[in-house]
Specification:
Layout lengths: L7 H9 L1 E6 L2 H4 L9 E7 L15 E5 L17 E7 H9 L16 E4 L1 H8 L8 H18 L9 H7 L3 H20 L10 H9 L5 H21 L8 H19 L5
Parallel strand pairs: 2-4
Antiparallel strand pairs: 1-2, 1-5, 3-4
Helix pairs in contact: 5-7, 5-9, 7-8, 7-9
Length: 269
């Protein structure tokens, strides 16, 4: 069985139109635990005209997970040392970034050392990160934080695929760490318009302690509640604009696609 986003055709589109590819997982946040984490990468590509102006089904994304190469195929869960890659079409990526999606915003802020490939269109994108940032992100960060909190405690309707962590620590420490990370990064983004990567101290040490199971559940829940409240307040008090700069985003998409289609190529390096 083949994943719908993993066809050879989609891989070709992603490779030929790639304008940006970076690390977005725990390694770039600084929260990775040696020998326990996979590597997550995200990219942006420009797709050919047939996927934008023709009748072909639109290209949304290409995905590749090394875990799928093992005996269980698509059922295999990524583990230590695995590579997980998603390459979005530029239009889909821009929609998600403008909506404040916490993970999709990360390519705008990762340090150059974590950039795997970049083209001039990708450089322009990163140079204009602020065009995508607005108060809208507050709701998205809150939604993701609350989902991680529900998952860490196994609330009704939530699901954890790491029962081994619950058995040892009484709660899913990885979901707990992600809930806290989202809170810390959301507060920074809504306060400054930026996300610092790796996560600065003292937040990083606190997150890593939670990840190692060194903090009781009650303490973690109290801290999540503090961050939740701070994000709620910033949704109305943040100095960021009410919405992204859609005029700039539309212009960047138009210029980038037309240049690519004119045969100038993506030109990643």
């Amino acid at each position: 069985m083949t994943h719908p986003h993993a066809s050879p055709e989609k891989r070709l589109v992603a490779d030929e139109g790639l304008i940006l590819r970076v690390q977005v997982g725990s390694g770039v946040h600084g929260t990775a635990i040696s020998g326990q984490d996979d590597r997550d990468e995200m990219g942006v590509c420009l797709e050919p005209p047939r996927y934008v102006t023709g009748v072909a089904k639109p290209f949304d994304q290409y995905e590749y997970h090394t875990a799928w190469e093992r005996a269980g195929g698509l059922r295999e869960r990524s583990g230590a040392g695995d590579l997980d890659v998603v390459i979005y079409g530029a239009r889909k990526w821009a929609r998600l970034a403008a909506s404040g999606n916490p993970t999709v915003l990360l390519p705008l802020f990762v340090p150059l050392s974590e950039v795997v490939a970049i083209a001039p269109a990708g450089e322009e994108l990163r140079a204009n990160a602020g065009k995508f940032v607005s108060r809208v992100a507050g709701g998205r960060f809150l939604g993701y934080l609350r989902a991680q909190r529900r998952a860490m405690t196994g609330e009704t309707g939530a699901h954890t695929n790491r029962p081994e962590l619950v058995e040892v620590y009484g709660y899913d420490v990885k979901f707990a760490m992600h809930a806290l990370r989202l809170g810390v990064q959301g507060v920074e983004l809504l306060s400054t318009g930026r996300i610092t990567l790796p996560i600065p101290e003292p937040h990083l040490s606190a997150l890593r302690a939670v990840r190692r199971g060194e903090r009781p559940l009650a303490e973690v829940l109290d801290r999540i509640a503090e961050l939740d409240a701070a994000l709620e307040e910033l949704r109305t008090t943040s100095p960021l604009p009410d919405e992204p700069d859609f005029a700039w985003i539309h212009d960047w998409l138009h210029r980038s696609y037309t240049a690519f289609w004119a045969g100038q190529g993506a030109g990643t390096r």
